[in-house]
Design brief:
With 182 residues, this protein is mainly α. The protein is built from 10 helices and 2 strands, in the order H-H-H-H-H-H-H-H-H-H-E-E. The protein folds into 2 domains: 60 residues, no CATH class; 118 residues, no CATH class. Helices cover 65% and strands 7% of the residues. The chain is elongated, with a radius of gyration of 21 Å. It holds the Pfam family DUF1759. InterPro entries: DUF1759.
């Protein structure tokens, strides 16, 4: 994800008419990961170092499917969410929402991942039992199937919507108190 943000920044900041060496120097100044910097340095003697370095970096770090699968693994590596942990539940929901957004940009390849039932099953295992049950009931009533990550993302948003007659969990976060419907 960091590489994608760097690419966006470079494309917005660098004038296409700048010299290859100037753009290459800016790229090197902004690469913070040692491996990425070493990869870019391999092209320092090329006649078009920026173009060659960007091509190599894109191949290594810019593959959306790899990014999506890595984020899915990162989400799966999170500890299971405990009942009443509104902060962890909110974090989980936002990460799933970001994953869905990334997969939606990937056309057919992303759609295959979005509709993979095993991803949904594995993500559901992270939720507390009460949320998992509520999620399944909501999906069954509204979509009839839960075997897609977008359905899970929409249903997770439903879980966070205020409901009447629900218990409010008050959590402390950085000395400020906030409430989340559970």
């Amino acid at each position: 994800m960091q590489y994608r943000m760097l690419r966006m920044a470079l494309s917005n900041l660098l004038d296409p008419n700048e010299t290859e060496h100037f753009k290459y120097h800016v790229l090197l100044d902004h690469l913070k990961v040692d491996q990425a910097k070493r990869l870019a340095l391999a092209f320092s003697y090329a006649s078009d170092p920026y173009t060659q370095a960007i091509k190599a970096l894109d191949e290594r770090y810019g593959q959306p499917r790899q990014l999506a699968l890595k984020e899915l693994r990162n989400i799966m590596d999170l500890p299971p969410i405990r009942a009443g942990d509104g902060h962890a539940l909110d974090n989980f929901s936002l990460r799933v929402q970001a994953l869905v957004g990334l997969l939606n940009t990937m056309e057919d390849q992303g759609q295959a991942e979005l509709f993979c039932g095993s991803h949904v099953d594995r993500l559901l295992e992270k939720l507390p039992a009460e949320h998992s049950s509520r999620f399944k009931r909501h999906v069954y009533r509204n979509q009839g199937t839960m075997n897609s990550v977008p359905n899970q993302e929409r249903s997770l948003n439903f879980i966070f919507q205020p409901k009447t007659a629900t218990k409010v969990n008050t959590c402390s976060n950085n000395n400020s108190t906030w409430s989340k419907q559970i």
